[in-house]
Amino acid sequence: MDEYVIEAQNLTKKYGDFLAVDNLNLKIKKGEVFGFLGPNGAGKTTSISMMVGLLRPSSGKVLINDKEVEKIDKGTIGICPQELVLWENLTCYESLKLMGDMYEIPKDKLDQRIKTLLKDLFLTDKADTVVSNLSGGMKRRLNLALAVIHQPEIVLLDEPSEGLDPQSRRVLWNYIRSLRDDEGKTVILTTHLMDEADRLSDRVAIIDHGQLLKLDTPKNLKKEVGEGDIVEMTLSNPNNRDVIKYLENLEDIISVAELDGKINLRAFDAVGKLPKIIGALEESNINIDDLAIRQNTLEDVFIELTGTGLRE
């Protein structure tokens, strides 16, 4: 039987006439990575801020371990905000020790915890480096270490990969998995990166305009929303409007759209239809520069649900 650690009940937040979060109801399981997926301005950060007690809702309530969020021990939650919160004139070690002292962690346990965090987040050789001299990726990893120094039960990560290079992102993703798999933490991940949500999350809530549109595992979301496979084509001498009209009339074509100069075709048995599609285009003297077939992604799901791609 699933054990739920967080429950949002009819959670609503208004700013004057603006409805930021609209009657949100959901439960987060103990020991899962729970992804909040949506574009900037979708309401995900506002929702999470209310769920961890940083923001008071206009109506509704949040329960953590069956207690109202206002009444829980604040050490239950560790928060890694999107904006870096660091002491620029301290070293990495000094920063972690200061935060540990604030949580009154015993000295022997704190020293070991700091060494472990520095090792796990690839900062050991930067222990005595002043924060102002760290790279952006190192600062973001230190930001995460500060959020979990006290070993909270629940860890909130708000856009943790923002601005990271691929190598730093990989380190961060591996550590997030270890929080769940090795330490049994419940991790709440807010992101607008579809790939990040897909790879890390046990379940994903897709939210837009303050409303919960869909909640399920990434695998189920990709099965339930947007059937068929995707064929992406780049044409050398495109008249995309005429090509789209032609492709839409083929049998078992679900949808055809132009996105970033490419034609995206969704179809059942896309591989079996390729010879017919390619042959018809060549007869019209339309050459294909690039072609790829891929399975449904969370971004396709998001576009299907909202009718748009990510908003900046």
Automatic annotation (TrEMBL):
Residues 6-234 form the ABC transporter domain. Signal peptide: none annotated. Keywords: ATP-binding, Membrane, Nucleotide-binding, Transmembrane, Transmembrane helix, Transport. GO terms for cellular component: membrane. The keyword Chaperone does not apply. It is a multi-pass membrane protein. InterPro entries: AAA+_ATPase, ABC_transporter-like_ATP-bd, ABC_transporter-like_CS, P-loop_NTPase. The keyword DNA repair does not apply. It is found in: Membrane. This is Multidrug ABC transporter ATP-binding protein. One of its GO terms (molecular function) is ATP binding. It comes from Methanobacterium bryantii. It comes from the Archaea.
